Amino acid sequence: MKPPKPPAPPRPPGMQAEKAPPAPAGTSLTPEWLRWTTEQLLRGCTPESVLASMIAAGLDAQASAELIELVPGNAVYIAAEGRAQQLRKLESTLANLQLLWEIDPMYSIVDKRVSVSEEEFMERYVRGCRPLVLTGHTRDWPAMQRWSPDYLKDRFGHLDVEVQAERQANPRYEEDKAAHRRNVRLGDFVDQVLAGGETNDYYLTANNEALRRPDFAPLLDDIGSLPPCCIRSELAERSSFWFGPAGTVTPLHHDTLMLFHTQVVGRKRWRLISPLQGQRLYNTNGVFSPIDLDAVDLRQFPLFAGVRVLEVVVWPGETMFLPLGWWHQVRALDVSVSFSYSNLALPIPNMFTYFDPVPRAVPDA
Ligand SMILES: O=C(O)CCC(=O)C(=O)O
What we know:
- The chain has 365 residues and is α+β, with helices and mostly antiparallel strands.
- The protein has 2 domains: 29-103, no CATH class; 107-341, Sandwich (Jelly Rolls), CATH 2.60.120.
- It is built from 8 helices and 12 strands.
- Helix 2 runs antiparallel to helix 3 and helix 7 packs antiparallel against helix 8 (186-196).
- The protein is globular.
- The protein binds 2-oxoglutaric acid.
């Protein structure tokens, strides 16, 4: 029997328009304003709040009101509204799934386990999409005894490596990482890290391809037992080496695959947010969120209110497992050497595609 048609879903109540950028007196309603207005209405903001924002920005009240009335009749708007409604439905499903996850009283605790079987790993952590810290499998790693900064300098100090530099001059240092690339002697970089104290200014991150180079290959011989489901023959291809001072911060982002990240020297604090809450993280550029979990501005990012952030400190010898799509912001608490790898054998490809959301540029005044 055909079920009765449910009533049209209500728009999210009280959705307020964003603050519009200031416009000098006499500014006309450029195509950028048309885009801004359309976007606010598609987000479900009330026409009144859109108008109030435009007037507050210095635009003519009559012209703004006319534009707001005109936009919903536009064929492109009508097409986009259908997609926006689908998106809201998806977001509401994800939000409810998240609430189901949060019913678990242990939701906020990141498990630390000495070891897990492949079956349990696959069931509870991969399919269950839960982060995990493994504490036992590195006991046989020669790296744990060897990879001090001094050893790296003695053994590989003459080699060039790519690092990120001058990060503190640019709040978007990861998004603009190409501009921060520098080639330096590893020995000089070790000296800089050991002498420089706590800073986020320089960091040898996974973007370096060191482990793909034959001269760094001996490092891979120092890796012993691997966590469950890892394919050893793919280790060289799918691993990265990290080295930096205390104080480095990798901003809030998600990866496009699942991976392990082992601390060899020093501790890192990981903050983690469920992929089901991604729609509250204002992701408009690639895999990044503009939110800094060390200083969240709820006036700028009101949707973030109530987002659950998990936190765990990963110690030397411990390995973080990052399941599909989990957002993370990572701070080194000490001088840190780490090793990450994504050589997992999974029933699905270890890679998900994502589309860059369109950057929400503000209109030019
Ligand atoms: O250790 C870091 O600074 C960031 C680690 C990270 O984001 C990763 O391995 O995906």
